[in-house]
Amino acid sequence: MNSWVTKCLFLLAMVLIIRTLLLPNTISFHVSKNNEIELLKQGNVRMKFLEVPQIVWGLNNQKIAFARACLTSRMLNRTLLMPSLSASLCYKEMDRLQPISFDKVFNFERFNSLCDGFVRVSRYSDVRNESNLIEVQKGSGRRWTLERDLDQLKEFSNQDYDAYETIRVVGKNPFLWHDHWPVSDYAKVFECLVLVDEISKEADEVVSKIREFGSETTSVSSYQKPYVAIHMRIEKDWMIHCKKREQRLNMSSICSSKEEITTRVANIQGLKPQTTLYLAVANELLEDDSVLNGWKQGMHPVDKKRLGLTEIYKNHSYLIQSAIDYEVCLRADVFVGNSYSTFSSLLVLERTQKMIKMGVSHPCGTDVRWPSYAYNIEGESGGPRRWMTNFSDSSLQAISYGSNSVSC
Ligand SMILES: *[C@@H]1O[C@H](CO)[C@@H](O)[C@H](O)[C@H]1NC(C)=O
Ligand SMILES: *[C@@H]1O[C@H](CO)[C@@H](O)[C@H](O)[C@H]1NC(C)=O
Ligand SMILES: *[C@@H]1O[C@H](CO)[C@@H](O)[C@H](O)[C@H]1NC(C)=O
Ligand SMILES: *[C@@H]1O[C@H](CO)[C@@H](O)[C@H](O)[C@H]1NC(C)=O
Ligand SMILES: *[C@@H]1O[C@H](CO)[C@@H](O)[C@H](O)[C@H]1NC(C)=O
């Protein structure tokens, strides 16, 4: 009798195990069925795709490259296949770029729902026939002009290419492609890039640490405590790069020393004493504390090290660290950056967009929320110059390669 019960239980257990093993298939079947229905609803009976090379370099160069790939796919009336980003910052060694899937950094579903009707990203599993593909080399070199590039894109949107489910662009990373779109189109794509929860939670933690730090120095409750974020580009390799650039352009307002930054920040009108300054600096600068010295009385600088966050940051790849820093600067009450930095420029773009959405009609005016400044250009009373993004610009040139036109 006992052994009979045991046998029954054993059989039951086996049935359960087999069911569980089979279940994932059933689920994925349902998902792909839903996808198909979704596609039919959109009237795209046969979706077509664009595939681009792995996206590389700094976080913001990657965001621009991604947006350019999206806008290209929009022009070709295709959906962008979810590209690989790069977790590490390697300029030369391509094999050490550590590909990281787009949806490990940005929320895939949110992207498509926010950008619905404008651009769309698809998963590779949406492709029905992987061999129905054409590989296309994008032109390059001096003689490959903006016009020729546009002609090539027009050709790809031609009906001859309709037969191919996927167009795979090979060659240069999209950041280096020619630009055919106005700033406002890029801004629409950037708006849809929302960090995945794990990363944005870490940014929340950093922001609350900064605000708590502020409340230790004053009596304001920590939640309300405002902070100024300063994106300081003073690392050795940046200084070498920007000095060269100053020589080439015969200008003197690209590089700013630490002294110039502290002096200009000290002269920002309207910053009350007991202000917390969050210094967004490269990790190499965290090695010594000198970056925290020399600020005006009443301004309290903090960096990741002083906040006790180096361990959290160290746990992440370069890309994720940048994404957290970016978010922290985006939420700052005041932002001060360098107008020749892509990181700073994209921040100002998103901050300007936020102000315009809140109904601020003069983003350069005094007494507005979320002002941004460029410390490399002198403004009023020896302070940094106010800075906003001009959304009427017809290309992203100013932002992607840096400029001193700050529209204020
Ligand atoms: C883009 O695709 C949609 C649906 O597939 C189609 O209705 C539309 O005509 C296409 N537009 C162009 C310019 O090819
Ligand atoms: C997939 O595409 C290739 C190339 O266009 C074609 O030869 C093949 O018949 C297609 N397969 C199916 C199952 O449609
Ligand atoms: C550089 O600019 C200065 C004034 O800003 C000017 O006097 C000088 O001639 C310029 N040099 C060159 C090589 O263009
Ligand atoms: C770092 O990551 C490991 C594994 O992902 C985790 O166990 C650990 O708690 C993390 N450390 C910090 C300080 O977040
Ligand atoms: C913004 O850009 C447009 C087009 O390039 C230009 O006409 C306008 O003067 C610019 N506005 C500012 C404030 O720079």
UniProtKB/TrEMBL annotation:
One of its GO terms (biological process) is pollen-pistil interaction. InterPro entries: AtOFT1-like (IPR044982), GDP-Fuc_O-FucTrfase (IPR019378). Transmembrane segments: none annotated. Gene3D superfamilies: 3.40.50.11350. The keyword Glycosyltransferase applies. It holds the Pfam family O-FucT. Keywords: Carbohydrate metabolism, Fucose metabolism, Glycosyltransferase, Signal, Transferase. Residues 1-20 form the signal peptide. GO terms for molecular function: glycosyltransferase activity. Belongs to the glycosyltransferase GT106 family. This is O-fucosyltransferase family protein. It comes from Tagetes erecta (African marigold). The lineage of its organism: Eukaryota, Viridiplantae, Streptophyta, Embryophyta, Tracheophyta.
